[in-house]
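Write out this protein's structure.
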Amino acid sequence: YCADEVGRRSGPPDVGLLDSRAGMHGIAAAAITQLSGTSFLFGVDNNQTWAGYAELFRQWRLDPELSRTLRERLKMVAAMVPAAQETEYLIRFRDKAQLLFSEYLYDDADAGDIGAFNPPLSDEAAPHSPLPILFGVDLVGLDVSAGAEWLDQEFVGAAYARFVSGCVDVILGDEVV
């Protein structure tokens, strides 16, 4: 929301976006516990991303009620996915995210434990399964202030299509018609 809209809006925002590529910021981490219905956790497949989220999840785990509430409202986003290695990159990202969620937020469960929250690795709706944003060199330095026509650029659509579609599915769920 724009700053002037925040003052007029009642209630928390529906979605929070948290970018962890440069490390976790304490204010942002605390904000998603209080502000949003769904939080998209952005990252790239590097040690900084995984260390930042491990620290965040470790802190949340100190409050079991909080971690149980939050874990189903999270969705990973793999940013800057290299198009040439998209499949391999997303599998590696998903696997690392699932390990992290399993260690800190998912329930320890056996196959027969019906009430446990521990989605399978292959579950695309699971918090650990990332929505991709493809990297394209044309996106670097894109001047979005020049007007709305940038949205119609083919390379923008190619980079963001699956992310936007996935966001709509996550946010609206069964409401999509």
